[in-house]
Amino acid sequence: MLNFTIRRLILSIPTLLFISLVIFMLLQLAPGDPMAQVPLTVPPEVKQKMREALGLGAPIHVQYFKWLYQFFVVEPSVFIDFLTNKSFLFGWLPDTHFSMTIDSVTGELVQKQRVISWQTRSPVMDIVMQRMPQTLWVVGLSYVVGILIAIPIGIYSAYRHYSLFDQAGTFVTMVGFSIPPFFTGPLLIVIFSVSLGWLPSIYDTTLIVDSWATFKIQLMQMIMPVMVLALQTTAQISRYMRSAMLDNLNQDYVRTARAKGLKESVVIMVHVLRNSMIPVVTVIALGMPAIFGGAIITENVFKVNGIGQLLLTALFANDLPMVMTLTFIFAILIVLFNLIADILYGVLDPRIRYD
Amino acid sequence: MTALAPMAFADGERGRDGQLNIIYWQAPSIMNPFLSGGTKDLEAASLVLEPLGRYDEKGALVPYLAEEIPTVENGGVSEDLTSITWKIAEGMVWSDGTPVTSADVKFTAEYCMHPEGGCAQASKFGGVKEIEEVDARTIKVTFENAMPNPYQPFMGAQSPILQKAQFANCLGAKAPECTEANFNPIGTGPFVVKDFRPNDVVQLVANENFRDASKPAFSTLTLKGGGDAAAAGRAVLETGEFDYAWNLQLAPDVIAKMAEAGKGVPVSAFGTLVERIEINLTNPSSDLPPETRATLAEPHPILSDFKVRKALSMAIDRALLTEVGYGQAGRATCNFVPAPALYASDNTECLTQDIEGAKALLEEAGWTDTDGDGVRDKDGMKLALLFQSSTNAVRQDFQALIKDFWQQIGVETELRNIDGSVFFGGDPGSPDTFQKFYADVEMYANNFDGTDPQAYLGSRRCGAEPKPASQWQGENINRFCDPAYDALLDELGRTGELEKRGEIARKLNDMLTKDTMTILPLVDRGRVSGRSVTLGGVVLNVWDSELWNVADWYRVN
């Protein structure tokens, strides 16, 4: 298993490099201009100067290799420096300065150039880290909530196949599948914020939870986005759970278990459920990168300015370094979670061996 | 500064009204207006950074950091209009307590004029020859030529003053590296940045060193960004979560419906933004080689005829378009320069639709429907036009209505819409930019900064047209070329007297509109924002930042 993991990890390096090249070329080919949002009152020659200041004049391969260097060398070294200098965990290690370089003109110690966003002129990774908490809170929690609701529904729907509960469950999941969040989101806002006035329609990313009162506010502002997203997750996972349970319920080993006189709850919850979880766990693992990717539409509807909203605004502003970095981080996560899903298969099902 | 606030509210201690919540549906990305031309960034920065003078809601100049607005009469502007001398008012301090000096002002110019900085406001410093510090509070700007409008540098939201001490190491190519300074600039304005989260939210607190001890009335300010105009409108007008929402570009009935909730009211004001149809005077046919396509070498086979252009204008019902698209936030107009009053021509001829007159004009020009298919033709060529615009719900409604108007006079129109980031992107490689104009007519909106239309009118100068030699950059979208127009422009550039400038500008406006029908203005678009019923002191200003007088805002109980 270890061999397999190492082999896969090494193989993923050329894969990721190829992905980064494809993303870069696609972004180069895409139409658009980072200056498109600048008002028409700014003369064209000024816009041209601004483009040059962003480094747009450089040849394409230079831009690509510059990004590669910044992303794979400078950013990790900045992270290591942060760990050794400021972090709580590794702060005891001697301070490192991997990301620093001597300025050729002044001779001062300055930081190497990081991946800089065109819109904000600040390091992309700093903004990504700033956006992580709200995305993980809202999107991550919705995933957990969705799974917690979906699994019991899936189990019971399969056990009471074609019962009223199953039909209702199928109906709700179909609704969840087919109604997009840009409809359910505003609908909830109109009901709970505008008409009833119970919940805020705008998420406050600056809220610091340090007391019961603030915890309550945090809970209230999270409910709507979390439920909108959880509806989607529930719809998907409960269908998988139901079909996996159905596959197993007709197996011989289930009949044997019942024949042995085991209680029905033990048959279902121990024997059937464990075997049915194998495909479901992979689906859950493969869905993980999407959490980090945020929920572009839902984040925008509720103004939870997380990673999804960041990607969207960057796309609108043609902020290529930001779009490139974000999509590449998603690519890394997808490759990583695919690997994790494959390993989980082996862990859950001893019959599957890769070596 | 404004006499609008009743005395009972204008007095009191700083920070008495607590928290102020503002929502901008486009989130600010940076607090340095010199590195971003985006309106959202300029306005967010205007809470902190201030210029020497601003424009008020009527477009008049008011001093901010300066003692007074320099004019020829008070000796601040030289008789030959080549220099302007500003004097910083006494006792002006930065939020860190240090005094504002002429060194800061001079440094700001150096910062923006640096060739490698990519300064978004470089045009404000165009024509500046020299900037001298006369003494600690006096600064003299000398121009290369006579500047009838010398209020370009250090005036308005586009050109505020930066603190030299903070930005000294951020010149030129280093400008983007100063993230800390770009996010937390030290200013003289009523608020100080506490926490800046790019494209998300800005938290500010009252400036303890602000020049007026009773202002601002709010102790903290949150400027939230993101979402869309509808959500921003809802948060102010319907749920009351926010106090002020910027630029509510929504259908008039949507805003009216939201306002019924009674939590807030829409406020509107008119500036110079005009939605117009630009006519291509050159031939955009794809049969032509790329070197001459849509350039002066190939006049347009149909639209070079004044009568056709006039007929196209006569067929349009501008009042209907305004009602459908903008409601209270729009006024039908025939002018390229609709405001300020001094420069606005009394041209109203186009406001009445005249289908029959348009038909007669086309007959006169030789366009008749010989084959009875409902589309006029002449010498075997159909009167068919390609009409392009950017993707936007209101624009597509307009396109459909105009297509219908033109169909009534026997003109066939093919509609096209292009995503705004491409259309306005200016990529010389793309065939779809508004500059390249590979279409017969196109529609978009434009305006000018400040109150002086000289540069705006100058955009239609012969030679300024986008062409292959200029990488398709240029502002003369119509490829309009008239020596008489250029001569009049030169005269405008030499004239300092306001009355005379107004007269020339109106004449130039008429040359582009009613005399030649090169530009068909449709709607003078106002700005609509929303304020909570509990927020007082808001004076919507289209000539400067909307937040220009935030120091005077207060809570109404």
TrEMBL record, chain A:
It is found in: Cell membrane. GO terms for biological process: transmembrane transport. The lineage of its organism: Bacteria, Pseudomonadati, Pseudomonadota, Alphaproteobacteria, Rhodobacterales. PANTHER family: DIPEPTIDE TRANSPORT SYSTEM PERMEASE PROTEIN DPPB-RELATED. This is Peptide/nickel transport system permease protein. InterPro entries: BPD_transp_1_N, MetI-like, MetI-like_sf. Residues 132-341 form the ABC transmembrane type-1 domain. It comes from Sulfitobacter undariae. It comes from the Bacteria. GO terms for cellular component: plasma membrane. The chain crosses the membrane at residues 9-30, 135-159, 171-199, 278-302, 322-348. The keyword Transmembrane helix applies. It is a multi-pass membrane protein. Keywords: Cell membrane, Membrane, Transmembrane, Transmembrane helix, Transport. Belongs to the binding-protein-dependent transport system permease family.
